[in-house]
């Protein structure tokens, strides 16, 4: 029996938890799919057969599934839990090239890839695009043998990205739509941004949002829900987590620190929490 839980669903990608409770040594045939999939095992193991090649999969070996493949699966050791990442075709081409050739469909999951997988799972509830791009980029480096998209002029690219983010363009809401607007791969944009400024694009964008949140709190903004929606956060909880991560205080505590005046009593505040050390 298979169960699926979507951890993150975006137009460009979906991250799902797949729980399989099958226990059989025979092979089952799956209908060919149209997406590109990166599958990493979190617990247990199973077997996959494609074009006559059988691979034993567990936490140390994952696989890349391509459109149109006829896949066969076997679960001789019981169930397993996996992370399945489905990529839109144009996102895959932007990262792997227009016609990538692969060394194979399986890939070794070393410590770096394992950490990238865990970071994606931790970030999936908010956005996770930057963590996903980092994870897929590592997979591409392992299995794609043809040249991947690259370019020069990173300083100009970062300046353009900063201008778009500063103007609150709708594409600035995420790494992938911003990369599409600028005509580059998400991986190149993410790498260029970190190289130029020493922080990720996501942290830079959230830093601007936090600064704007401080302005609004100082001016007496009464509703955190309205503040979260206006500044592009997923919800009020996302606002509270981000503000606390950057500043070590909740928005509620910051109101008091700033001596802000409230015109009305908010209907809901962040959960009380002691200040934590802000990330550098």
UniProtKB/TrEMBL annotation:
**Entry-linked PROSITE patterns:** HTH_ARAC_FAMILY_1, HTH_ARAC_FAMILY_2
Q: Which InterPro entries does UniProt cross-reference here?
A: AraC_XylS_family_regulators, Homeodomain-like_sf, HTH_AraC, HTH_AraC-typ_CS
Keyword set for this entry? DNA-binding, Transcription, Transcription regulation
The name under which this protein is listed is AraC family transcriptional regulator
| Record organism | Lentzea miocenica
HTH araC/xylS-type domain residues: 159-257
SUPFAM superfamilies in UniProt: Homeodomain-like
Pfam families found in the cross-reference section = HTH_18 (PF12833)
């Amino acid at each position: 029996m298979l169960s699926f839980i979507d951890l993150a669903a975006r137009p460009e990608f979906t991250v799902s938890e797949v729980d399989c409770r099958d226990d059989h040594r025979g092979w089952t045939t799956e209908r060919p799919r149209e997406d590109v999939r990166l599958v990493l095992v979190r617990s247990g193991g199973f077997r996959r057969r494609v074009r006559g090649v059988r691979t034993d999969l567990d936490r140390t070996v994952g696989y890349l599934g391509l459109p149109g493949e006829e896949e066969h699966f076997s679960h001789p050791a019981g169930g397993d839990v996996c992370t399945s990442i489905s990529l839109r075709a144009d996102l895959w081409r932007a990262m792997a090239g227009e016609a990538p050739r692969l060394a194979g469909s399986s890939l070794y999951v070393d410590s770096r890839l394992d950490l990238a997988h865990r970071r994606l799972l931790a970030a999936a509830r908010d956005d996770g695009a930057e963590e996903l791009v980092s994870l897929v980029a590592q997979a591409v480096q392992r299995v794609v043998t043809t040249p991947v998209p690259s370019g020069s002029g990173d300083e100009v690219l970062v300046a353009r990205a900063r201008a778009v983010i500063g103007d609150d363009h709708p594409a600035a809401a995420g790494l992938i739509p911003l990369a599409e607007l600028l005509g580059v791969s998400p991986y190149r944009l993410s790498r260029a941004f970190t190289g130029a400024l020493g922080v990720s694009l996501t942290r830079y964008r959230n830093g601007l949002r936090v600064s704007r949140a401080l302005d609004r709190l100082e001016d007496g903004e009464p509703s955190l829900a309205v503040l979260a929606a206006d500044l592009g956060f997923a919800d009020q909880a996302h606002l509270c987590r981000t503000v606390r991560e950057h500043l070590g205080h909740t928005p509620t505590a910051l109101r008091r620190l700033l001596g802000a005046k409230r015109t009305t009593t908010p209907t809901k505040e962040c959960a009380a929490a002691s200040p934590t050390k802000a990330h550098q």
